[in-house]
């Protein structure tokens, strides 16, 4: 198990090779199968990228899909159904670019285009409504910090009990952690402090990750990468990110 809390090892993996994180998110789309049939083989891939405000809250989503029969296409409705339709959710699996390359090649696509080329297939942008930051928690940061921010990252799909246990171990969550949080962690980076809590939410969205940022330094450059890394950890455990909201 890696000691870096932002690179939690998926519990199904025996050896974790930490790779540079691509800018885009990759998903495998499995062929339909019955309730009592084994998991189907991939029939295509989806590539996505969120757009953000300067404060790292989400403004929209770009996506493109590919299947051998249809080639590349872009549809905002497909990205929406990946997060709201239970039948589609069951067939979508977050993956890494390396695995998407293998599937693309095996299905006859050849070499998966680079990310600059993939972005040219984004033709149907999905705006995501935003609002001014709400206030969640005290307005003033604690002594020694000049700013306090709270972000909430929403996710679709679900986590298995062993995946939650793996996150708790990787994030060194206290065994007696109280409240609705099922896993939590903390990271100090160049004087700034990041703490986070994973919770179940709602009926249509399965999970949320609440991230509190305490800024000691004037720079805010670590905020975006830290949110991205935490989001990617949960993608590697099977969740599908929906949006990132700012609460303070």
Account of the protein in words:
By secondary structure, the protein is of the alpha+beta class. It folds into two domains: 25-127, no CATH class; 147-246. The protein is built from six helices and eleven strands. The chain has helices at 76-84, 86-89, 97-106, 115-119, 161-170, 223-236; strands at residues 25-30, 42-52, 58-67, 71-73, 92-95, 126-127, 147-156, 183-189, 192-200, 207-215, 240-246. Strands 1, 2, 3, 4, 5 and 6 form a six-stranded antiparallel β-sheet that branches. Strand 8 and strand 9 form a beta hairpin. The longest helix is centred in the C-terminal third of the chain and has 14 residues, at 223-236. Mean pLDDT is 86; it is low at 11-21.
What order do the helices and strands follow? EEEEHHEHHEEHEEEHE
Biggest sheet features? 6 strands, antiparallel
Note the gap between the termini.
33 Å
- Helix percentage range: 10-25%
Q: What would you report as the Rg, rounded to the nearest angstrom?
A: 19 Å
Total strands: the figure is 11
Instruction: Give the overall shape, derived from the CA principal axes.
Output: globular
Low-confidence runs of at least 5 consecutive residues: 11-21
Offer a concise description of the structure.
With 248 residues, this protein is an alpha+beta fold. The chain is built from 6 helices and 11 strands. The strands form 2 sheets. Strands 1, 2, 3, 4, 5 and 6 form a 6-stranded antiparallel beta sheet that branches. Strands 8-9-10-7-11 form a 5-stranded antiparallel beta sheet.
């Amino acid at each position: 198990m890696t000691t870096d809390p932002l690179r939690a090892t998926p519990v199904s993996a025996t050896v974790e090779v930490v790779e540079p994180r691509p800018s885009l998110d990759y998903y495998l789309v499995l062929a339909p199968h019955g309730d009592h049939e084994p998991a189907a083989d991939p029939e295509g891939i989806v590539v996505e990228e969120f757009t953000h405000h300067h404060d790292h809250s989400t403004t929209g989503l770009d996506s493109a899909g590919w299947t051998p029969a249809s080639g590349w296409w872009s549809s905002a409705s497909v990205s929406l159904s990946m997060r709201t339709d239970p039948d589609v959710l069951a067939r979508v699996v977050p993956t890494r670019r390396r695995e998407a390359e293998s599937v693309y090649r095996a299905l006859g696509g050849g070499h998966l285009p680079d990310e600059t080329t993939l972005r040219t297939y984004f033709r149907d942008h999905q705006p995501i409504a935003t609002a001014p930051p709400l206030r969640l928690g005290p307005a003033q940061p604690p002594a020694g910090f000049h700013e306090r921010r709270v972000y909430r990252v929403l996710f679709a799909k679900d986590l298995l009990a062993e995946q939650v246990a793996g996150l708790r171990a990787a994030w060194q969550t206290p065994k007696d952690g109280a409240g609705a949080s099922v896993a939590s962690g903390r990271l100090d980076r160049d004087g700034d402090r990041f703490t986070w809590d994973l919770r179940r939410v709602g009926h249509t969205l399965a999970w949320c990750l609440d991230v509190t940022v305490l800024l000691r330094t004037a720079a805010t450059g670590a905020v975006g990468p830290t949110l991205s890394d935490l989001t990617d950890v949960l993608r590697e455990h099977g969740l599908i990110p929906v949006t990132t909201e700012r609460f303070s």
